[in-house]
Specification:
globular; 10 helices; Elongation Factor Tu (Ef-tu), domain 3; 18 strands; 362 residues
């Protein structure tokens, strides 16, 4: 790998960190390291979401920019007598992307054990069974232990976190970045760089860069962090579907990597706030920032929890078109990342109390 610049190093540190829902300590520590220099104050909610405050006008509206710290992964549920590990998915997985993939089990002491996801080999299946995708309940993790006792001697216990094994890489096209956990360390990186970009800027509000916990299991951390922040406006920054791979029709997705941030019109968790959506689109147009519209009928983001917290928070989900989400490796485009940061900064610089009052009922 060629030498990484500061941004790529941050993205590598964030995506290489291991953290499924309920086990976000490592990515939280990485996010805190990178966001602290640009924050006036760092706080947490009681579930572990990180909240970094940057004050522009202490009497201005509160703007929340949230990624989520957790990634999809697994949890050890049982160790059998021969040392094989049963597991539970944590977050949404498609069974076809799981078999024969390398994983890392993180023990209670923080040590990492390497394993591989296995199942009954196809050679001994019936012709009918071979045509079907393997069921998750028939899979196991092989760590090379010869017994339950040996696995436990190595520190493995039920409840241990399991994450995909995959290292951050810059592809041959240096704009394309390959890593695990883009969902949603890219949102955390955007929150970091938004605060960084506002470091020497005047802005008529208070900005909160947030790393939520437990998004992948029901948008849970966003509920508690939103109650703690009490924002006037909420942005969830997450990955979205990239519709530029073979087999995806224009009816399913028109999003392309490199075509700008996705303005999510609706998903399974919310209808985007019309006034806020129009404000963001106008800001993109004024600043010649590329953008694209997206609808995601089969998924949700933290904006789904944010917008129905308290007495309602006008919210918008902004996505980064990403290939192969909820698998061991995803690809996204660096320009989309940088344009999303730029767009959110320009939006924040314009949002004052008068603007909030206008757009709420737009």
């Amino acid at each position: 790998m060629s030498k990484l610049d500061d941004t790529l190093m941050m993205l590598k540190d964030l995506t290489d960190a291991k953290g499924i829902a309920g086990n976000e300590r490592e990515p939280r520590q990485v996010m805190e390291k990178y966001i602290s220099p640009y924050a006036d104050k760092i706080e947490y909610d009681n579930l572990g979401s990180l909240i970094a405050e940057k004050v522009g006008d202490a009497n201005g509206p509160k703007i929340m920019v949230a990624g989520h710290l957790d990634e999809v992964g697994f949890m050890i549920s049982k160790i059998d007598d021969r040392g094989f590990l049963s597991f539970q998915t944590v977050g949404g997985w498609w069974s076809q992307v799981m078999l024969a993939q390398r994983v890392s089990i993180v023990t209670r002491k923080g040590e990492t054990i390497t394993g591989v996801i296995g199942s009954k080999p196809p050679h001994i299946l019936t012709p009918e069974a071979r045509k079907k995708a393997a069921d998750v309940k028939d899979m196991f993790i092989d760590i090379g232990a010869s017994s339950k006792e040996e696995a436990m001697e190595w520190g493995v216990l039920p409840g241990d976190m399991v994450v995909p094994y995959f290292e951050f890489s810059v592809m041959n096209n240096e704009k394309l970045l390959l890593a695990k956990a883009w969902d949603n360390r890219i949102g955390c990186a955007i929150a970091i760089d938004v605060l960084k970009g506002l470091k020497d800027e005047l802005h008529p509000n208070i900005v909160y860069g947030v790393g939520n916990v437990q998004e992948e299991v029901g948008l849970r951390g966003a509920k508690t962090s939103t109650v703690k922040v009490k924002p006037d406006i909420g942005f969830a920054v997450d990955v979205g579907i990239a519709g530029d791979t073979p087999g995806i029709t224009a009816k399913e997705s028109t999003s392309k990597m490199g075509a700008g941030p996705q303005i999510v019109l609706y998903d399974a968790s919310m209808v985007s706030h019309k006034g806020l959506r129009n404000f963001v689109v106008d800001t993109a147009e004024e600043n010649s920032i590329p953008y694209q519209f997206e609808t995601i009928p089969g998924g949700g983001t933290d904006a789904g929890s944010m917008h129905i917290s308290l007495n309602g928070v006008p919210s918008l989900s902004i996505g980064i078109a990403t290939r192969y989400i909820h698998s061991h490796a995803g690809i996204l485009h660096r320009d989309d990342y940088e344009n999303t940061v730029k767009l959110i900064i320009e939006v924040i610089k314009k949002i004052d109390s008068e603007t909030v009052n206008k757009l709420i009922f737009d």
